[in-house]
């Protein structure tokens, strides 16, 4: 058969979409590289005032088109309030009061927070409401959370296989595990009952690629990977995951556009600046465990096969993973989970970031930022509160990725653009501004 007679291969829809996004992104980068340095500085400037204006207006009024998000109103509160806190701005007292009052109306009499007053309590909106209240800060916001009832709601959502349901008769997935564990951890109500078998469920969701899926047998995904990894840190079982494979998967999600994609062969998206960037930030702090697993794998590959009798549920008998004590036992993989979030941020170890932090800042500032305020998924998309929140969260992680301490100011050379771009640092396990996290920790741990 004459090869010249063959028809050309038709590109897939995915390929065409990828080429279009690359073209839009590279056009922006080419423009940036061709203009004078003074103009480049302006393009790299975080439009702080415009972002604050966009966000604060949204707390007072949203157009009718937002009615489709009626069951996500605590999320809107969290995305907006957290973004404002990241920008270092405080809310007026009456706005804080109204937000606390509204979120209290979303609190179900039997525990948990719904998407709106009178709706069904849901783990996702419970996470959003609790994070929003912690970000608002102060005794009034903290005391409004009925921890006893909320604990009962979490117990009702807990499943025998270790997973959680998002709501009554709802789906069971890794997102539910994270939102439940995160809320219980930050409010100091996490206990053995809540963490039982959670590690087993999340472990069953780690895929052959190394990332974590929403449920067993599904595709690895950036959002679920962050959720699964963070939950495993919070319950003290992170060493049970195959961390070297997880590192490989997540770092290769940063593409030529400089931003992160959420899944293999998918388009870049600004929100993964946090979901994937946050997972890398956690792995950066866990790299001693990663190295131990890599060393153990190397040793095992050079040894004869280990018999089934010699194997433990957590690996071979020579497993080099961390062995913590928990509840008087010597079971590998379990830590003192009560203070895992606090210890994680305070046992900070300086290490080079595992991703290209300057490149990600470039994507956020040049491709996701709208000059009039707000941030977006990618060029050609519209700004929204969700992407504003997670682009800014990812930008904060980038800026502090080289810091010796979690709240120490980074050097100017690691902050792309003017130093006025610097945002507030966050706690990477909860995505709460660090200062607000410490205030909440003092209230729920020291005073409880």
From TrEMBL:
One cellular component term from this protein's GO annotations in UniProt: protein farnesyltransferase complex
Cofactor remark: Binds 1 zinc ion per subunit.
UniProt keyword annotations, A-Z: Metal-binding, Prenyltransferase, Repeat, Transferase, Zinc
Record carries keyword Metal-binding: yes
Record region (Disordered): 298-321
A molecular-function term among this protein's GO annotations: protein farnesyltransferase activity
Domain spans labelled Prenyltransferase alpha-alpha toroid: 46-432
Catalytic activity annotation: L-cysteinyl-[protein] + (2E,6E)-farnesyl diphosphate = S-(2E,6E)-farnesyl-L-cysteinyl-[protein] + diphosphate
Keyword Membrane: no
EC category name: transferase
One GO term (biological process): prenylation
Listed InterPro entries: FTB, PGGT1B-like, Prenyltrans, Terpenoid_cyclase/PrenylTrfase
Cofactor list: Zn(2+)
Domain of life: Eukaryota
Record-listed E.C. numbers: 2.5.1.58
A Pfam cross-reference name: Prenyltrans
Family matches, as PANTHER family: GERANYLGERANYL TRANSFERASE TYPE BETA SUBUNIT, PROTEIN FARNESYLTRANSFERASE SUBUNIT BETA
Described purpose of this protein according to its UniProt entry: Catalyzes the transfer of a farnesyl moiety from farnesyl diphosphate to a cysteine at the fourth position from the C-terminus of several proteins. The beta subunit is responsible for peptide-binding.
Subunit-structure text: Heterodimer of FTA and FTB.
Sequence similarity: Belongs to the protein prenyltransferase subunit beta family.
Protein name: Protein farnesyltransferase subunit beta
Organismal lineage: Eukaryota, Viridiplantae, Streptophyta, Embryophyta, Tracheophyta
